[in-house]
Each structure stands twice: as structure tokens, then as C-alpha cells.
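Hey,

The postdoc asked me to send both predictions to you directly instead of through the lab channel. I've kept everything plain text so nothing gets mangled by the mail client. Protein one:
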Amino acid sequence: MTAESAEGGETNEGVLLDEPTTADLRAKVGEAWREFARALADLLPTLAPGAHVDLTLDPTASGTGTAVYSVSIRVLDGGVVEALAIGNAGLPEGYRMDRASIADLVALGWSPPGVLAGSGDSFGVSSTQDSANRLATVVTRTLRDVYGAPHPAFLVYLVHDENDEPIESAPLATARHEPSLDGGLDLDDLDDDGALSAALADAADEVVPLEERVRTVVATMSKTATDQLQVDADGDIGIRAGSAMVFVRVRDNPPLVDVFSPILTEVEPTEQLYVKLSELTNRMPIGRLYCAQDTVWASIPVFGRNFQATHLMLAVQVMTGLADELDDRLHGEFGGKRFFGEGDKPSPAKSPADEHRTGMYL
């Protein structure tokens, strides 16, 4: 297979072929959730009585439609913190939790609906700001393992006071700070003469490090500030684009920006799979597909010398399209798991004899 660059179609074979850090998706996703839990634990003790933290699995990305899986945390007087997690009464038919999922909630420490005063139809748990680490762990595992969020980037959150006025806070890892469920990465809103060009005006000089210029592009595309971008332990910027998870990595030697995405995981590497990936790669105008361990990745390198923001934008746009198109096609032929496919989102209620599946990779 060849690795073609988004800059002029040149090949850069060998630089990206055996990339052990991109192969371990489980570790990357796990670390992202740990960063989210730590950020939430750090936030809770700083909030005054009356403050709320609302966390929602973005239905525009997960395909859950009118089913909104959410957890709301509220700070009360005396350092008391209560959290509410949506129950089946708040979910439409077909997206309600089965008995095993409800048992998972109880095992995590949630009281059934109505037990905690004021919980109504939601599951409730009471804690304190001094026990923020424990509560953050419970909330994180609920969103990840029970509600099926594949990555914190698929969460939107809002921190506000009792009058619904926004409260400024540090970012919750890769979750998106959003007062509504609209917005996010919108490639159609960007053009050469628009916001991106203005944001890069001060970064046109060659003395500006490549990493800084890349962060400016990604932040502008994500409609956020550069200092709010989250970089994981591998040095990768994680961005959510629709139902796809895209990572952006900056390399120094040679200067290179790699845009890559997990297309399919837990897939069995076979000769037929390798042949299919080779055929698809040969038909791609830029980039390549490859299998590392049990994960199929798509990768598009962008050369860092004479870096052009439009090349990175193109790479992200192509990568998003690839992820949306190829995960279904390859899953139907080779099985495995899509990052957030129909079979991996929260399932309709099942009988006890049915196989129980919650969460994604962890």
C-alpha cells in the first residue's frame, strides 16, 4: 500500500506504515475517559451551591434520535452534591434500558427512581464535594458503560447556575462545551476568506511552529479556543466530526501532520481483509487504509513543509467521509465494531435470555 499526501498526491511510504501507538485504540480511548473523569473531579469542588453540570450523549452524533441519555449534577448547600441519571421513563420505546443495564446502574451506586428526594423518574446518587473523585468515576462509567458513549468527544456539557446562567469553567477533557446540541465541527462554514484565514493571519510566518499552526486550524474548525483543545498521551488532538472520531498528530521529523481515524475495531485480520483494504486504498485519491492488530485505520498525511491550512481541512473532510462510508461497508463484510454504529449504540430492551451488551471497548 502507498501513503499519499493531501499536498500534491506525493507518497510518503514508510513514515506511517507501522505505527504502534495508533494500533492500540483501547488504550487511547481508555486514557481519554480517565482524563474526562479527572477533569470532572477537579471541577466539582470549585462550584458554588446552586451550580449544575449537565452532561449529554449527543444524539446528533450517536443516531439515538429523540433518546437523550444524560446525567445532571447539582451542588447543594454544605458541600452536598447530587446527580440524576435518566431512567426508562425519560426514554422513548426502543431505546429503553434492559434489566442488565439497570442492574449496572444500581451496582455503580445509583438509587432507583424516586428513592432520592426530588429524583422523580431519574436514578439518583448523593455525594459530597470532598468525594468528587468517586462521583466522577460513577458518572463516567455510567456514560461510557451503560449509556454507550464511545469517547468523551461524543458528550456535550453545560455548567450553569440555578438561574441557568453559564458558569466559566475549565474544559472537561474532549467533551464539547455547548449550551445546545447544535454546532460542532462544521466544514461548510469555513472558507479561504473566512474565519480560518483571519485566525491564521498571525501564524503565516514560517517561524511559527507547525504544531501551533495545526492547533489554530483544528480549533477554528471546532469553533473553540486553541488552549481548550485536548491532547492525549500520544500527543494527538481528538476531534469529533459527526459520527466519526478523528485524530490529528503533528510530527517533527519529517514535518508532517497525520489525520487518522479508527474505521473498524475488533475485526479478524484475514487475507481477504488485506486484499479489500489494498483495493480500496488504490481507489482513494489521497490517504490509505491499513489494519494494525484488530483495528482498521484510515490515514491521510499532510506535509508540514509549506503548510497550507486548506490541505489539513481537506484531509479532515475526506477522513470524515471515509469513516461514515467505509465503516458500514467493511462491517457488513468483515464484522467487527464500528466506532459508533447501529450495533454499538444503546440497545432496545431485551429479554433476560438475550445477549447483554453495554458500552463500547472498555
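Protein two:
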Amino acid sequence: MFITFEGGEGTGKTTIIEKLTRQLQNENFQVVSTREPGGSSIAEQIRKVLLNPENKEITSRTEALLYAASRAQHLDEVVIPALNDNKIVLCDRYIDSSMAYQGYARELGEEFINKINVYALNYMPDLTIYIDLDTKIGQARINNNRKHKIDRLDLEDCSFHDKVRNGYLQIAKKDEKRIFIIDGNQTIDSIYSIIYNKVKTLI
């Protein structure tokens, strides 16, 4: 079972995934919790390049290609082996992030993103949970979270993050069977409860 989590900055994805992982493991499910970009040694090194605030010169195409490269490594090292072992994979971001951030917000287009991620298209999630939240609220949460380390994408202005959100909503409209939208204005506990019930129904 391959389940991915998507959303803009400050939606609480990471917290929810950690909680869901613990609960499913307590219920004796074999769970692999991972993230993108990253999730494996090489992919994490690519993540550092991508999110380093000092790397302002990275072009949109280079950015998209690095995400695709990290994803390919992550699939081969983490996701595919776990799925072959009949484990549940919970992944913080996947190809929908590339489509929303680079395809829509960077305006590279769907065709370009699909072409460079053709390998990932062979391993689409069984379920994608998208937490929808007003970008200003999300950014405020990030700025108020002392534990959060500001990365290169956090430094983008509100108009960029608005494009990301609109991109996600467009993606969700095109794939309603796979993508489950949740209102991110609710409390974390409420959001978690909805997600837990959705995941357990799927399992």
C-alpha cells in the first residue's frame, strides 16, 4: 500500500505522518515512513542542494530535474523494496509536489514534469491525501514554528505559494479517485482523525 501526503507549507503533514506511523505500527502493520526529496542517503544529499537557501541560482528546470533524480533514487532504494515486502509506505510528498511546485508555480507545464518523472508514473500511490490550507495561514505557521528550519522554497513570496495551492487543486480535480482533499483549517487532531479513518478503510 503506497500512500502519499501533499500540501503547501505549514499544513502539518509531517506531524500527521509521524502519528499515523506510530499508530499503525502499534496495530501490527509493517510501515515505512519516508519523505521527498530525500528518504535515502543519496536522495537526502540532493535534498540539501535543493533546499539550501544559498542556492538561489538554481534554475526552474534544474530544480525539477533534481527532484526527479532524487525521486528515482528514493523509489529504487526505499519505496519499491518496501512495497515488494508488502509493507505500507507513507511518503511525505511525491510526484504531485513536482507538478504543483515546478509544473504549475514555476510554469514548466505538465508535459515536462511527466516526461522527467516517467519512472515514477509506473509507481503511482494507491491514495494521496492533500491537505488544503490558505497560503498566508501556512506561511504564518512556518514563521511561528521555532523548530522549522527555513529552506529555499519557504523564501518564495505569497504569489508563488498561491500558484502552488492552485496547482494542487487542479491536480486533485483531474484525479478525484486517487486524491482525497482535507480542509487544513481544522485542528491537527481533527485532520488526523479523518486521515486515520480514510487510511484504515483503504487498508
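Summary for protein two, as requested: Residues 60-84 form the longest helix (25 residues).

Thanks,
C.
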